[in-house]
Amino acid sequence: MGLQCQRDLFRLEDDVHYINCAYQAPLMRQAEEAGRIALRQRTRPYTYTVKDFFKPVRRVKQQFAKLIGAPDHERIAVIPSVSYGIATVAANVDLKAGENIVVVSEQFPSNYYAWKRLCAERGAELRVIEAPEKRTDWSMRIAMAINEQTRVLAMGHVHWADGTKFAISGIAQKARSMGALVIIDGTQSIGALPFPFQEVQPDALICAAYKWLLGPYSIGLAYYGPWFDDKLPIEENWITRERSDDFQNLVMYQDHYRPKAFRYSVGESSNFLLVPILLAALKQLNAWRPKRIQRYCQKLVEPYIPGWQEMGFQIPDKEDRAAHLFGIRVPAGTDLDQIKPILRKHQVHVSFRGDALRVSPHLYNNQDDMAALTKVLKAMASTRKRVKT
Fold this sequence. Notes:
Elements: E1 17-18, H1 29-42, H2 55-68, E2 76-79, H3 82-90, E3 100-104, H4 113-122, E4 125-129, H5 138-145, E5 150-156, H6 168-177, E6 181-185, H7 197-200, E7 204-208, E8 220-224, H8 274-288, H9 290-301, H10 305-310, E9 326-329, H11 336-345, E10 348-349, E11 351-353, E12 356-359, H12 367-388
Parallel strand pairs: 1-10, 3-4, 3-5, 5-6, 6-7
Antiparallel strand pairs: 2-8, 7-8, 9-12, 11-12
């Protein structure tokens, strides 16, 4: 059975058309309440027990593993940001001169700067694969750029700026066949778009929580596969070591880490305020399921796209874009600064990324939101015609 609009679960005003989840997700009411309860408990620190440092985090890891299709929640780490998760990978890559790392043109900076610096330090090549005019050829270009000297493929499942959907399974297969690590930034897809975990077999899958995981800012989650089982974290904190639940004997220093990805969790990963909020969000996402969220967004958006195209706006073909995140490209020469007042007037919230309006609906969006966006696009089109005249 298909999902219905879930706007009642969010605290959004009726006259606000927030089609911008790729920027920041609004918290759900149950996540907000979980935060209230956590904040109240924080005023009574004597109520915390040793279990409070471990059990809620374990439940978050279990829920995230379920969401991405990973069979083992012990391969999940709690991170503060995507850049932290990527830095963990970069610190463990033995990159040599003459080798290369493959990334996608204009991907999010947190999945770029670490690779740029690493390549510069080691005398390696950073291969930035530009977008072709025909978006369907982009995945092929990426796969063709991977060769025997490729040590890392680092990219997203979709492009964060315009929602281009990559043939991630085939690209990952090519990377694995060449012995390269497959590092996926899932921030703009996990939670809203099904991820083919078994086909991709990522070495790392890294996500910020405040977008499609519907969680709070300054926390995220990362899957680290078997390649990382004997590697080193970028910081040493007490909770990642064996017997860290024995508070009385923490100064009986341990040489060994807790199993698998636990070593890669950030210090203070028990975060008593953010973890309960994230847990509430993940439980709801697993109840909804990304496949059904994607289908809802498709049904919501698809009827409007032909009309937008007739107005002169460019939208990628259905098979080339995700339904939860896509770009509406304005005609050449359009002054984007003239668009912003029109958006404010109609209380329509989207993002500007390059020469496109980035539209990113979720279950809280409905036909009223699409109608409001259509009014804005009509106003933009009529303004452009007047300028030409």
